[in-house]
Amino acid sequence: MKLLEDNKGLLTPPPESDKMYNPTLPTPSLTKAGNGDESNGAAGKSFPRSKSYQNETSETLELNNGDIIYLDFLEEGHSSFVLEGINKLRKQGQFCDIILVVEDHEIQAHRAVLAACSPFLFDFFSGLEETTEPLPTYKLKHVHYNGFQYLLDYMYTGRLHVPLENVPAVYATSLNLKMETATKICAGFLANHLTTANCLGIRRFTKDVAFKQAVDEYIRSNLKDIMLSKSFFGLTDLQVEVVGLDESITNEVMEQRFFSLVLDWAKENLNDLKPKLDRLVEKVNVLYLQSDNTLKDCAEVEDTVLSSEDDLVQDYKKARRRDKFKIKATSPSTNGNGQLFHKFNINPEEAVSVAEREWSIVAICKTSENAYLAIAVLDGRLMAITAHVRPVPPTNGDQSKEGSIVPDSPPAQSSNRHRLSPVLKKTSITPLQPMSSARCALGAVELDGKLVVCGGYDRGECLRSAETFTIRDNQWTKMADMNRARGRFGAAVLNGVIYVCGGSDGWKELSCVEKYDPATQKWKPVCSMLKERSNHSVVTLNDKLYCIGGCEGQRSITTCECYDPVTNTWFRIASLKTARSQACVCAAEGLLYVIGGTDLWNTLSSVECYDPQTNTWTPRASLNSARRGAGAGLVNGMMIVVGGSDGTQSLVSSEFYDFITNTWSVGPSLISPRANLSVVSVDSRLFAVGGFSGKKFLSSLEWLDQDDLEWFGHVPKLFDAPTQSKTQETIMNGGAVVDAQKEKRETSDVLPVEEKQQVYHINGSSETVPVNEQLGSS
Length: 778
What we know:
Organism: Biomphalaria glabrata
Domain BTB: 96-164
Radius of gyration: 34 Å
Region (Disordered): 1-58, 393-419
Protein name: Influenza virus NS1A-binding protein homolog A-like
Strand content: 25-35%
Distance between the termini: 92 Å
Oligomer: single chain
Keywords: Kelch repeat, Repeat
């Protein structure tokens, strides 16, 4: 009971309740407890008074016949009113008792509301130990903010209002949070809005059987159109070449059975004790069909079983044995860093064994003679499987059942991007040597015909080390360490000297700059930048260095600087129109292009172009896919953007930019996903170096064949010759490749015998050709 203070400071009872009655409010009804009959609470009926004011709240109201009565009133819209009120409190940060971190967003909320709406969160909160933190913070792994924000509003308001492009993310998140109603609503909506562009993305996370069947049927019915979509080219590709099949695949049943064998082989090689699926997709897998109708890796098949004259199989076996030895010699890396906040994973797939995750064939098509493609789910991941069936060739003169001569070489491959080529099409059997340590957000440049990498960070710390790679020798050589450890910095070559600018040493952002002079083989400091920054881009244009964007503390910035080596000074240039960090940059045709990046809230697809003549930035066509931490370079007169992250995963995809039409098109996929990689052109080949795969920091590199637009992880075939001429050696030691080729053609039309090399064709045959012809086609 509340007591009011009068003018004399004495406490007196409040006015009687009948004087406080507001006639505008609805009149409550009276309910008897005896038989449940309701009395008519009409206006004017008097209520029994209690014997005394002090005892009114403690005595039970009774009718004359002794029945107990209750006040029974239901306010319409009360639930909505309360939810709206709690939602306002959430947005104002009032009475919140938990913080959820979703991507880069911190969300304050009331755990009671979340637990009431999500069985998963209820179980999670119920299992938490008591904490002294006033507002404990928990990070949700594998959750996209675009999906969670709509579900959060739904929890507080009961309304789902989601744009079409975000419905898949909402569906996936609601599924993991076990919010059944939201999941069913999203599934029904998506089933009615399937397109060739979105069906593969939707299939990645479908779980309930009916919805999965609807999506699979749509994919099977529209497979040819889907194979032309961007989402199809973004699928991870498992490549297999099958030998030992002595009959043709003639119908859909046989196709289904064949790919089921491939799935069985993959599952057998991917139990919980063996390496992850990523190892199977790094290269072509040559498999042998055994008599028990199972597939086995040819590297594990005895030589007596396979033809000794099959160069493809024998070279594959040698390469596999070498790779197997390297895997055994590699020790796993550990992370000793402590966590700043609690983490919990809402993705149930993480806790499921390989056998329990989905393995299924979604759709199959024949792409060419003896070549097939399937869209399948392997270990819960939607992938493409490209398979080429190559029967074991009989000896010359053997006849088939029809009486015709069976050719010795396998048929030509599919022209589809997911075609299957022999291992030795463009490369040797020797894998590219990895860097001495994994590097992410590193600097990589070309200097004197060699690849130079420096700095970056691994799982533990920022690095000072630098090393150089000679493609001909497939060998890394240590260089002098930088003066400062740094990652997330920019590197470029200007007038034959390497410059590294800014970045982070792991504790603070840097403005210092140092350069490496190959003549002295030493690093020395030069004039510092005007501003500390990291995750910026550095590029050379017109004998000057340009530093673009980056981040300062917790914000992306628009400011840009230019360095003049003649005066050893930095000066400001026009600022970007959009603040961005982790963008990639490329110089072409006297202009600078800055692509993608992040404003620290959103991953960007926008592109800006800088003209140093007018000191202005102008927009260009946006990327097809937003990405940050990508790399950029020039290929065949076009700009290519490679890898990066879309904010949720590291990417394998790439895109080409046509300067004339101002348009972007889909490019070839990397072998490994890479974010915060470096892209650099060496000896007319584009290399993707280091980065983060989404699971581990990378020490590997791969190169792009500019003719067939395919990425390789082995040494280019050009450098695999057993002997090399003096002219070729000069080229490899830093001479200009184009000029050397021209001089070689002009001085001699006939090459000595030792300057010839064996080259393998796509159909498996080989021939000996002059080295200069290879140079001309590389």
